[in-house]
Amino acid sequence: MSPLRVAVADDSVLLREGLVRVLIEAGFDVVGSFGDADELLANLDDCAPELVVLDVRMPPTFRDEGVRAAIRLRELRPQIGILLLSQYVEVVYAQELLSSGRGGVGYLLKDRVASLSELQDAVERISAGSTVLDPEVVAQLVGRRHDPLMSLTPREHEVMTLVAEGRTNAAIAKQLVIGVGAVEKNVTAIFQKLNLEDSGSDHRRVLAVLTWLQR
């Protein structure tokens, strides 16, 4: 079998050249090396990679160019494997890349790719259609999936149900045979548990109801 064709995109010359050397040493055919995502996308037809290694943050904004390029790659060449490398765990970007549910993707932290064999294993698994995630990325993704509604007390559940029905605090107090002050305390606790900041309006009440209805 011919070696896997890999392209690399990273704005850091040192990191990019280091990746190229490591990949070549691992037996892969590095068919392209680019300093930004636009250059990579512009040369897709010429280099025809089977897998692309991308930095998450690249010029011009150094925010999410790598992720945007990865998503674009999925549209243009869904068969190409994608490995995102990042200095930090950026959960929103990881979720965006994984949202399609398709395999052949990876998200690793640069500092935690400790050996040639580890990188080689990740590339081979991604090219075979697997999903490869850094353990720290997995931990934070699982953490974000925690349902804050699970932390509500039975009384807060009762109050939230009535809030979702559109009842006022006074109406809820009458329904549950408790004081309006007690209802207000429960509503405030619900807002805190749902991480809804005080905006000085009823906006939090609407957001709480939406969260409740989407459970």
Q: Would you mind describing this structure in some detail?
A:
This protein is of the alpha/beta class and 215 residues long. It is 51% helix and 14% strand. It is built from 11 helices and 6 strands. It has helices spanning 13-25, 37-42, 44-47, 65-76, 91-98, 116-127, 135-144, 154-164, 169-176, 180-193, 203-213, and strands at residues 5-9, 29-34, 51-55, 81-86, 105-109, 131-133. A 6-stranded parallel beta sheet has the order 2-1-3-4-5-6, sandwiched between helices. Helix 1 links the parallel strand 1 and strand 2 (29-34). Helix 8 packs across helix 11 (203-213). It is elongated, with a radius of gyration of 24 Å. The relative contact order is 0.09.
The pLDDT mean sits at 84
**Distance N to C terminus:** 49 Å
State the share of residues found in helices, binned by percent.
40-55%
- Beta-strand percent range: 5-15%
Gyration radius (Cα, Å) is: 24 Å
* Biggest sheet strand line-up: 2-1-3-4-5-6
Report the sheet with the most strands, covering strand number, pairing sense and barrel closure: 6 strands, parallel
Helix count equals: 11
Strand-pairing-aware structural class = alpha/beta
Order of helices and strands: EHEHHEHEHEHEHHHHH
* Quaternary organization: single chain
Tally of DSSP β-strands:
6
